Amino acid sequence: MANQNGQGLELVGLRKILGGRVIIDDLSLVVNKGEMVSLLGPSGCGKTTTLRMIAGFLIPESGRVFLAGKDVTEIGPEKRPSAMVFQNYALWPHMT
User: Fold this and answer.
1) CA-atom Rg of the chain in angstroms
2) What is the chain written as a DSSP string?
3) What CATH homologous superfamily does 9-95 map to?
């Protein structure tokens, strides 16, 4: 693990295939505790897929997700120390 203090988020070699198409290929990233990061890119580049893997809604074909130094790759979203909030309330239009 590159994040030696065991804090924050680390993605190591993530790969995700959806619909026969490689969406994420060998993504590695370290975000230390207290840092803020933005994922920027065009539609379809894998931003939401990456967030869904971090949150546990998708399991990568390969690679690992570490939160606070713990490997959470195979742990479901309800048992991870994370949350995901969408930018808009597309599913709940009455809340906009």
Assistant:
1) 14
2) ---TT--SEEEEEEEEEETTEEEEEEEEEEE-TT--------TTSSHHHHHHHHHTSS--SEEEEEETTEE-TTS-GGGSS-----SS-TT-GGG-
3) P-loop containing nucleotide triphosphate hydrolases (3.40.50.300)
pTM of the predicted model over 0.85: no
Per-residue pLDDT in tens (0 to 9) along the chain, 96 residues: 454 566 799 999 999 999 999 999 999 999 999 999 999 999 889 999 999 999 999 999 999 999 999 999 999 998 987 777 766 666 666 665
Extract the tokens encoding 59. 């399991």
